[in-house]
Design a protein that fits this description.
Blueprint: H1 3-24, E1 56-61, H2 65-73, E2 79-80, H3 89-92, E3 99-113, H4 123-132, H5 135-142, E4 147-149, H6 163-166, H7 175-184, E5 206-211, H8 215-230, E6 235-240, H9 242-251, E7 258-264, H10 272-276, H11 295-306, H12 310-327, E8 330-342, E9 347-348, E10 368-369, E11 376-381, H13 383-389, H14 404-409, H15 415-418, E12 423-425, E13 431-433, E14 436-442, E15 454-461, H16 475-487, E16 497-503, E17 507-513, H17 519-524, H18 531-534, E18 555-561, E19 565-570, E20 584-591, E21 601-608, E22 613-624, E23 627-634, E24 636-638, E25 641-646, E26 654-663, E27 668-677, H19 680-685, H20 689-713
Parallel strand pairs: 1-11, 2-11, 5-6, 5-7
Antiparallel strand pairs: 1-19, 3-7, 3-8, 4-8, 9-10, 12-13, 14-15, 15-17, 16-17, 18-19, 20-21, 21-25, 22-23, 22-26, 24-25, 26-27
Helix pairs in contact: 1-20, 4-7, 11-12
Length: 714
Amino acid sequence: MSATAQSRVVRLFVAFLMMASSFCIPPMAIPGGPMGRFTALAESEQQVYTAGVIDRIEVVRYDTLDAALAAIDTGQADLLGHRLLRNDFSTVDSYTGVKKQWMYDTLAEILTVNCAKYPLNNYHLRRAIAYAIDKVNITDSIMNGTVDVADFLIPLGSQYSPETTEGGLFYQSNLLAAQKELAQAGMLDVDEDGMVEAPNGSEIVLAIAAPADNEAILEAAQVITENMRSAGLNTTVVTYPFTWLQEALNNHTIDYDLAIYELEFPDYDPGWAITTLHSKLKGVVGENIPNFADTQVNQVAEDYETGYTVQEHVDAVLRGLTLLRDLAPMIPLFFYRTLSVYTDTNLVGWPNNTRSGAFSVWTPVSVQPREGKESVLKVAVLPEFFTDFFTSLNPFKSGHVLSSHWLWKDQFNPYLLVYDTPIATAPDGGPVPREATSWRMVLPGMAPDLGNNESRVVFMSDQNANFTDGTGLYAVDYKFTMETYANHSLIPQADDFVGVRIIGSYVAAIDFRGVDAFLFRRLGELPILPEHIWRGKDVMSWEPNVEEAIGSGPFKVESYTPGQSLVLAANPTYYPEIDTEPPELVSHTVSPDDPIPVVTVELRIHLHDRSIIDSVVLTYSFDRGSVNFTESTEMEETPGGYVAEIPAHLTATFVEYYVNATDIWGNSAVVLVGGYRLTTHQQQEGPDPLLLAGAVGALGVAVVLLVIRQRKSS
């Protein structure tokens, strides 16, 4: 026999063995009948931004801060539409009827340590410094309680901050712990002068660079110096102008030991401190200020940048922040607070919003009038509100970039009440649905059409959404909005915009350059424009009138007097509501049309849901003799629906199946139940499975004997 013929015979034998094994090796049996009982998930506890009970919002100009505060104090106004500057904090105290709503700021004061210098490259020395500092004394005595102590390099308002549960290690001076760290660093008081020497025996004198023109921070530097000297570290203060010191640290043009550095953290990048301290960024302007290098931190930074899911990014954040606290290349002293003010004379139900204050978008949909009071929220603003911010019913005419300061940090923002946004940030810092019922992040490796250095956020527009002129809100409005923002550089990341792909009527997939697991937060708070109104308009100069100021938010414009006043009325058709309904079956096909267990069967289904479908699982059961087996498989999402196959089972007399679909909020339902079986006629005329298995085995033996005989004869 030729080699080719022998190969064919062997392949035939292997095929028969595989067929025989399908009869002889059963899968693991799952106890119970062919159909498992479906248990529905508990009702979703998701929060949603939705309409309130206030009928009107009146925004009124006051010429001075004192006049505005006096109006709030007497109940003529309900809140101030600006955050107060720090030098105005004390002014509020003279108005007894004015209440304070403190907000966490992203601005912090950091003691940065030059880790490239000996002996500060020893992390035990850096930990000794962290243990020595009395941060609580600084925050309470010097900053008068207008700041918040911190151990972690992440804003306190971030939902990912571990400060509440893990903070406190370095809050108060612990000289015993500091001295133990110095001993581990090999730093002892050899000459018994009360100050330790370096491990090589040399004298140590550390200098703290501090701004000469900031009295409070200079005083804090003096306190830190005293704390460090108490621990045995000889320390002095050197001063520079604030601006010069900041620029020198940013540009790496100063040779320093320690320095007090003012740092504003990004709003939507919880891992920024980890990535900026990667050793590859040493010497880069604005990055790695302490000239830090550590292999563990490098690895976590890389894990953060390359994580496959949002949760992997979050896990890397928590690991990295803990590492940085313990290695202490940058020691956070405190985060600043900002202040907003209001009165509850007329309205109750004020949310405790430590992120965006009393003037946040949550206030108009949360407060309620006291008995006998008008259903009106009155906002007092200063002249600059109308001259610098709300200069027109066109949000873009003032020329501002839509940064977090424009959106929610600095002032009451009526634009975000007229125009809806995909998501809202709840008072606790987490994202909740607003216009979009759901969203999903897609990172490199998760979709074949996504580049290696790109990120995608998929928003699902609420199918109940509509603009105040009655026109529906669709994915095309998302596309038009994002293209408008990018083309006119209206958002900070405009240069990274790649494009928007529309999937059906309600799904918009938005791509940006860069791996950013939190892109949905950056884009989710941007107002959505109605394409049918804005198409063809000059975005930067168009002046809409009241009738043309069409949005989809909880309020609409009733009247506007430039430079003086604005009145908003509640939108009676505002739509957001919690999605508690599970997915529904639209259609399905089974192929072949008349299936039987001995053939492979394809199921294809189409679903409808207000939110993104999270998973679709096909579960099927079949019999082998007297034993039933159950298996499950995830159905694949394709442009033609969700698809899965039920494999052929040559000995089965029946197959029963069901499909369970779950949306992103956990709403779940069995959307399809079916089955098929061999008829009595098919069972009688079909081959006996045991006889067939025996025949296959006998044929296999014959093939082997044939091969052996041919080899001997050759």
